[in-house]
Amino acid sequence: MNLSKVEKEVLRQFVAYLNDIYPKQIRSVILYGSKARGDARPDSDIDILLLVNDRHKIDRDKIYDFIVDADLEHGIDISLNIYNAEEFNRMVTWQAPFAANVVRDSKILKSARDLREAGDYDDFYLVTKEEAQLAIDNAEKFIKGVKEFLDAYYGPKNL
């Protein structure tokens, strides 16, 4: 990942802003592209994918107000794509090039809703694919342990 301190702060503010204006619509905010891969040039923009419940309820002008301000105040260029989560999942299933690039190169910004509910903006972080895989591996080990316990207690045929 290749974000400056100012870029991280602008993204933190962006996630909070999105949650303020659309608290029930934001599903995920995803960083992808050269900034996520760590091979950005000085003139690279910040590519953001916004997954929402219903993109027809999103007023892009409100979001672009923040983006324009970030550019004017900090010289930070945010490139935004907005999709319903279901639309994006279909694109992943179809192996659409855009979706494949996002999946391959993305860093998921912690959910705006989670940040607001926790009230802890210091806990803002990026989840790497390695961290996500570790969480999945740990969950699978836990499930296996529960299944073994239940098999031993009830017998495998009673499940």
UniProtKB/TrEMBL annotation:
<dbReference type="Pfam" id="PF01909">
    <property type="entry name" value="NTP_transf_2"/>
</dbReference>
<dbReference type="InterPro" id="IPR043519">
    <property type="entry name" value="NT_sf"/>
</dbReference>
<dbReference type="GO" id="GO:0016779">
    <property type="term" value="F:nucleotidyltransferase activity"/>
</dbReference>
<feature type="domain" description="Polymerase nucleotidyl transferase">
    <location>
        <begin position="11"/>
        <end position="88"/>
    </location>
</feature>
<dbReference type="InterPro" id="IPR052548">
    <property type="entry name" value="Type_VII_TA_antitoxin"/>
</dbReference>
<protein>
    <submittedName>
        <fullName>HEPN domain-containing protein</fullName>
    </submittedName>
</protein>
<dbReference type="InterPro" id="IPR002934">
    <property type="entry name" value="Polymerase_NTP_transf_dom"/>
</dbReference>
